[in-house]
């Protein structure tokens, strides 16, 4: 296969890597594989597609001579048309630094905000659009003018030139500078990209609160606070898992008689009236409904809901519970 038959290879790899990133997130892949797939998407691929769209033609270097009687130039001058492989790499990294934040700004104005999926689909959509545009622009050029990625071209830009002409030394310095700049940018952006796809994980926690979905302006209490003797009412609580993994919880409801209010109130009598186990995925919320029928009467009562990670003990307490709710009630 001749080089002219491979003009689409680099952009095909860009499209493949972009699609692979989407599939990696869609299937919930984690760890080093996720990092290896996502980091290129936020450091190089969008910029490379953009540069390929702007510069579909191969870069040509030449030496132009001038009439020294008219110009006073004794040495030939180098000229350049387009950009070479090394410059494409450097420009790809630089432009990605602008493209990804712009996608984030656009995502901020969507109903979903700056979250994973708007950023993912915005970045991949823009990258694939530019990739298709770059392929079309290359295809419309004559075969000999299409940019074709070649390892030899890249290596020629990073090797020292021994040419004896007047611009050989300057050209070699330019190449070395481009290499240093490209490596520095790749290291910088790769570190930023790694931090973006692997942010420091916060300590896990669980939110535990009374469910208020059915509360209206006529509701006198956020939970069933008034009971008639022998009456059964429904207490709804929500459990939101922020522990970074699926969790198994058990919630236990006690009716207690106390000698006061607050956390320091002494418990005089306690009856277990309901219990329920629930499994909650990370970032999910489950509503737990308890059918509560107090057997004690009076105005010095409270419902206490204990939440445990895993199985609850036979004798739950405030100190041993992971979370708890204290809800004063009256049973007439």
Give the strand content.
25-35%
Domains, number: 2
Order of helices and strands: HHHEHEHHHHEEEEEEEE
The whole-angstrom Rg is 33 Å
Number of helices: 8
Q: If strands are numbered along the chain, what order do they take across the biggest sheet?
A: 4-10-9-6-7
Let me know the largest β-sheet.
5 strands, mixed
In helices, the fraction of residues equals 25-40%
Low-confidence stretches: 160-168
Distance between the termini: 91 Å
**Bulk shape:** rod-shaped
Structural class, judged by helices and strands?
Answer: alpha+beta
What's the count of strands? 10
Mean pLDDT, rounded to whole units? 80
Protein name: DUF1616 domain-containing protein
Keywords: Membrane, Transmembrane, Transmembrane helix
InterPro entries: DUF1616, UCP018671
Concise summary:
The chain has 332 residues and is α+β, with helices and mostly antiparallel strands.
Protein architecture, described:
Residues 15-330 form the DUF1616 domain. It is a single chain. With 332 residues, the chain is an alpha+beta fold. It has 2 domains: 3-197, no CATH class; 205-331, Immunoglobulin-like, CATH 2.60.40.10. The chain has 8 helices and 10 strands. It has a 5-stranded mixed beta sheet, with no helix packed on it. It has a 3-stranded antiparallel beta sheet with strand order 3-5-8, with no helix packed on it. A two-stranded antiparallel ribbon has the order 1-2. Strand 6 (247-258) and strand 7 form a beta hairpin. Helix 1 (9-26) runs antiparallel to helix 3 (45-54), helix 2 crosses helix 8 and helix 3 (45-54) crosses helix 5 (85-108). The chain is rod-shaped.
């Amino acid at each position: 296969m001749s080089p002219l038959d491979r003009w689409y290879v680099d952009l095909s790899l860009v499209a493949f890597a972009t699609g692979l990133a989407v599939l990696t997130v869609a299937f919930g892949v984690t760890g080093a594989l996720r990092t290896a797939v996502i980091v290129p998407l936020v450091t190089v691929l969008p910029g490379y597609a953009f540069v390929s769209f702007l510069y579909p033609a191969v870069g040509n270097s030449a030496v132009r001579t001038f009439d020294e009687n008219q110009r006073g130039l004794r040495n030939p001058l180098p000229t350049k048309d387009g950009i070479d492989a090394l410059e494409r790499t450097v420009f790809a990294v630089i432009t990605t630094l602008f493209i990804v934040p712009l996608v984030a700004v656009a995502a901020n104005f969507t109903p979903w905000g700056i979250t994973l999926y708007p950023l993912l689909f915005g970045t991949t959509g823009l990258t694939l659009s530019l990739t298709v545009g770059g392929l079309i622009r290359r295809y419309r050029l004559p075969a000999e003018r299409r940019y074709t990625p070649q390892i030899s071209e890249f290596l020629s830009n990073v090797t020292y030139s021994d040419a004896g002409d007047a611009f050989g030394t300057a050209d070699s310095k330019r190449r070395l500078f481009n290499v240093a700049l490209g490596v520095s940018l790749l290291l910088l952006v790769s570190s930023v990209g790694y931090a973006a796809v692997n942010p420091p994980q916060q300590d896990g926690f669980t939110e535990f609160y009374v469910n208020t979905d059915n509360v209206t302006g006529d509701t006198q209490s956020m939970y069933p606070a008034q009971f008639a003797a022998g009456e059964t009412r429904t207490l709804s609580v929500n459990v939101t898992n922020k522990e970074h993994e699926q969790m198994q919880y058990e919630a236990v409801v006690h009716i207690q008689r106390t000698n006061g209010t607050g956390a320091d109130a002494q418990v005089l009598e306690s009856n277990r009236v309901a219990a329920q186990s629930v499994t909650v995925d990370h970032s999910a919320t489950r509503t737990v409904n308890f059918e509560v029928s107090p057997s004690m009467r009076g105005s010095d009562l409270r419902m206490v809901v204990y939440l445990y990670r895993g199985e609850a003990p036979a004798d739950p307490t405030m100190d041993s519970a992971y979370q708890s709710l204290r809800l004063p009630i009256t049973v007439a």
